[in-house]
Specification:
mainly alpha; 3-stranded antiparallel sheet
Length: about 200
Amino acid sequence: MSTDLSTPVLLRRIAQLEATVGRLSEDLGSLRSAVSKQGLHLPGTRGVRARVAHAKSSTKDDQHARATGGLAGATARGEAARVQWVKHGLVVPGEQLAQAWGLTRQALAPAADRGEIFAVKVGNRLYYPQAFLGMDRETVATICRALGDLGASEKLMFWLRDHGTLAGKSVAVALESGVPVSKVQRLAAAWARERGAALVAAAA
């Protein structure tokens, strides 16, 4: 990967990778659950536990090497990426979004419950895509509802990335340039179907 990319582009790629890791983790959990329901035992589980126990008893350098290579390391990097989203303004606190829309911060929670918006948790606070600030609530709601029950990271990735279907533009830039909301809505629905199919199949 080139290192000459701008920070927002790099952060979008980190968001994509983090969402992929999260989706794979969810898939693994679903598969483990399905296997357990059939009364089967996954091979190698004891070995994994033994390796984890061994890692805990190793030196600090060894622990660090192991942590940076596995899911724990990916989780830590994901949290670090979220902090960078905040630092670079890709997500904003609820107070800022509420002010832009003329709402109270408390009014955002019911909207999130209805699937009209979503937030990502960074530390102990909820943040919303910065792209929401320059858009009307109904447009945001239409697109977010089309994303269905995807996780917040998957939804954020949809808003951050540049889509070929939108002439290589992000959702906000495409809408600003005159792309119909209905086209973005269809793209969001297709995105949700594509990323939700694996989880549905695993749970069947």
